[in-house]
Amino acid sequence: MWVQFAPLRLPLRRRLQTAAVLQWVFSFLALAQCCLVLYLVLLLGEGWALAVLYAAWLYLDWDTPARGGRRSAWVRRWTLWRYFRDYFPITLVKTAHLDPSHNYIFGFHPHGVLVAGAFGNFCTEATGFSEQFPGLTPHLLMLPFWFKVPFFRDYIMCAGLVSSEKASACYLLGQERRGQVAVAVVGGPPESLDARPGALTLQVLSRKGFIKTALQQGAALVPVFSFGENELFHQVSNPQGSVIRTIQERLQKAMGLALPLFHARGVFQYSFGLLPFRRPIHTVVGAPILVTKTPHPSREAIDHLHATYLEKLVQLFEEHKGRYGLAEDKHLTLI
């Protein structure tokens, strides 16, 4: 196989961009495991006292990921994230004013492989979320499993990540202080198994939990489409019914985690590796769908709001697809 190596002479800024994305991929794929090993080393070695103290802290702090988390403005504004943004680059596109006197659920689409657009826009300030949407505080919802890993949980909470369990979203949206935004990646891990260049399939038809929560809390719904999210990685062929897909789906049901077999480029060459391709990501935030608070919504009310949400999501995609390089004959497939 022919390997295309990166040029020896590249501007320092491009080297720094690659380093920033390398640490992000490492954090996503291996940092949790490293944190767990570190804790076990401390517990079984001379650092056992520190491990015991942390365990006591963990016990007292156990519910924090479901109670708004513990964000750090300093971490979210690290210079590192600007290099991360510029690698792709990532752009946040505002299409409508969002009143900070309301709370919101952002429905983010598509999941992609590693949710780069959601992280860059809502877990950092690199794309200027606070400047574009003053008075709003974004919280990206993440699988509860990750908040059980020592040390790792504290790091991800600094970026504004919180648990995706229903109680977590209800806590955020039930606060008297308005302007809270729960960012839900609606397709979830199963959607990542279809993430590959050119893919426009969204798993959304049966996803109505976020709709029910919006009604119960009176939170406005905002469709968000991230153009370019699926262009970052290739994925091993895994059509429905194949052996690979069957194993992936069984593992996903057993562990709650999807395991897409993806590949893209490396650090010093462009032919293979786990770093994403340099492809632009344009995350477009749509107009709000105002919701009347309904503590006990009927099935009909949920279905009606869900249909309205899907209509606005498709409309958002159709209105902006040409601007971001998609042909007129390209349309979303909702499953």
From TrEMBL:
Class in the EC hierarchy, top level: transferase
Against Pfam families, the record matches this protein to: DAGAT (PF03982)
Q: Where in the cell is it found?
A: Endoplasmic reticulum membrane
Q: Which UniProt keywords apply?
A: Acyltransferase, Endoplasmic reticulum, Lipid biosynthesis, Lipid metabolism, Membrane, Transferase, Transmembrane, Transmembrane helix
**Classification via InterPro entries:** DAGAT (IPR007130)
Q: What is its EC number?
A: 2.3.1.-
Membrane topology per the entry is: Multi-pass membrane protein
Entry's transmembrane regions: 21-41
Asked whether the UniProt record includes Lipid metabolism among its keywords, one would answer yes
Q: Which PANTHER family match?
A: ACYLTRANSFERASE, DIACYLGLYCEROL O-ACYLTRANSFERASE
Family to which the UniProt record says this protein belongs = Belongs to the diacylglycerol acyltransferase family.
Q: What is this protein called?
A: Acyltransferase
Q: Which gene encodes it?
A: LOC110077435
